């Protein structure tokens, strides 16, 4: 693991800035939104005091381990949600790192959750040198599971916990997803190879492209 200061991250559509006190109103709005919270924690919106406690915890993640923390995501200057990369120690693994996020409903279904999640995974492996990243959600949370799959994580476990105030649907359990650095590197190499081929094909004149495609159908791609 590489120790470094939490950095501002940028993707094609997102600017991910380290969470600050100036972002408190955004995190609290999400935590007090019934639509956002129906499959999170208690299955109900947080009170103002609970939402404030969550923001304090999110801020604290940036100081527990250098380089880690919570990022507020903005698209064209508008807040879309937050992403976190934090140390969540367990008995089995005292150095387990988890990434999760929370999105504003007005930006659901636009690809931001997956884009931010992929950047968390890239940052974890490429810049921090982690060996594994996990994510967890309720079994019934199909949207969250789809995002984790889209970020390259795979389902490794379904588990059941008991809660004093269980959210609706928790009886179907919770799921854990995971990706290792080796798995991520393999996916990245494969993706780079595909992009290079598409770039080469796009640069060919139509006649040459048709000729090579015809050759591929009968002889396979040239080396």
UniProtKB/TrEMBL annotation:
Residues 14-182 form the N-acetyltransferase domain. It comes from Aspergillus pseudoviridinutans. InterPro entries: Acyl_CoA_acyltransferase (IPR016181), GNAT_dom (IPR000182), N-acetyltransferase (IPR051531). Pfam families: Acetyltransf_3 (PF13302). One of its GO terms (molecular function) is acyltransferase activity, transferring groups other than amino-acyl groups. This is N-acetyltransferase domain-containing protein. It comes from the Eukaryota.
